[in-house]
């Protein structure tokens, strides 16, 4: 798992450099270890609940590729797909993708892709189509007063029914249940449910950072 994570981090750096997010693509072992600590729980969760999880080794046994997907009901989602820079353009990525993201993997398949043109080209050739972009926003916290008829309730992660509350709302919105992921998020993050006249209509997870 740690070796696969190292492939992920090291293969990410050249792309970030091409996009202008970092000046250098070099990454030391200490920096990999520093990045591992806050992500351990996430990697362990998807590793333990994966539908397909493959790594690739070179001729001397060193890990040079990692791909992982999860199946949640009818949806197969590609979560990890990384090849070391020294092993790229040799067919390794295609072989990994065929194993973890098969065409017959379900009626719905999705990828949360990067903006890197090389990666996008590979994903589009795997049978998916572009739908939308994702944008991150951030701002300094400040008190905000909003007129609403919603009642907000902090959820107790250990309380019976918390997973069902959130999953039932998500199922109404998307037709998909991800109970195993909701239970995991409840174990690491604060959560709230929004009710209108007593009926659950929305939810949110916070962040402890």
Mean pLDDT score: 89
Q: What name is given to the CATH topology of the largest domain?
A: Aminopeptidase
Q: CATH H level of the largest domain: which superfamily?
A: Gcn5-related N-acetyltransferase (GNAT)
Helicity range: 25-40%
Helix-strand string: HHHEEEHEHEHHEE
Second-tier CATH architecture of the largest domain: 3-Layer(aba) Sandwich
From the spread of the alpha carbons, the general shape counts as: globular
β content, as a range? 15-25%
State the CATH class of the largest domain: Alpha Beta
| Strand order in space, largest sheet | 1-2-3-4
- Alpha-carbon distance between the termini? 24 Å
Whole-number tally of structural domains: 2
H/I helix tally: 7
User: What is the chains' assembly state?
Assistant: single chain
According to DSSP, the number of beta strands is 7
Radius of gyration: 20 Å
User: Structural class of the helix and strand makeup?
Assistant: alpha+beta
Residue stretches low in confidence (pLDDT < 50, at least 5 long) are none
* Sheet with the most strands, sense and barrel status: 4 strands, mixed
